[in-house]
């Protein structure tokens, strides 16, 4: 139903798991837009973590079964006299692309954003839902011929 389209993100994730926080001599950060996906009855649910992102800074597009989620995390305005001591929170524009299979109805995606979590609900397409098929049988009628 859903296929990843970011091979390098997957490679980075595996390297981070194998080597800890330092991979290939550089310090890696967690993925800026981690996602969980679930099948829940007749819908597919995607949950993206976007803490610190305003709802108006999220853009969702679908083109030819490719779902693109873009979000911008902007710096907090602390005034002119603020001096950064530690800056670990990544800022800027983040995007994630996922291929949606033909079994999903990309025309009816519902999006909700609450407490830093973007939840997309994608209905399973009618053509992909299980259905019962009745079997029609041919009735055999025997005719007996009695010789008399």
From TrEMBL:
Family matches, as PROSITE patterns: SHSP (PS01031)
Family annotation (InterPro entries): A-crystallin/Hsp20_dom, HSP20-like_chaperone, Small_HSP
Residue ranges of the TM segments: none
Xref: CDD domains: ACD_sHsps-like
Residue ranges annotated for the SHSP domain, each copy included: 26-138
Annotated signal peptide: none
Protein family: Belongs to the small heat shock protein (HSP20) family.
Name of this protein: SHSP domain-containing protein
């Amino acid at each position: 139903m859903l296929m990843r389209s970011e091979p390098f993100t997957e490679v980075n994730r595996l390297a981070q798991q194998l080597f800890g926080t330092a991979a290939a001599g550089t310090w890696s950060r967690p993925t800026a837009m981690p996602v969980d996906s679930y099948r829940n009855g007749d819908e597919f649910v995607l949950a993206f973590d976007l803490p610190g992102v305003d709802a108006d800074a999220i853009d969702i597009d679908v083109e030819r079964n490719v779902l693109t989620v873009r979000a911008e995390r902007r710096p907090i305005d602390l005034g002119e006299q603020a001096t950064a001591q530690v800056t670990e929170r990544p800022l800027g524009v983040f995007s994630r692309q996922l291929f949606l299979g033909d079994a999903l109805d990309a025309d009816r995606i519902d999006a909700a954003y609450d407490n830093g979590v973007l939840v997309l609900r994608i209905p399973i397409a009618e053509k992909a839902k299980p259905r019962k098929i009745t079997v029609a049988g041919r009735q055999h009628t025997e005719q007996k011929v009695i010789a008399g």
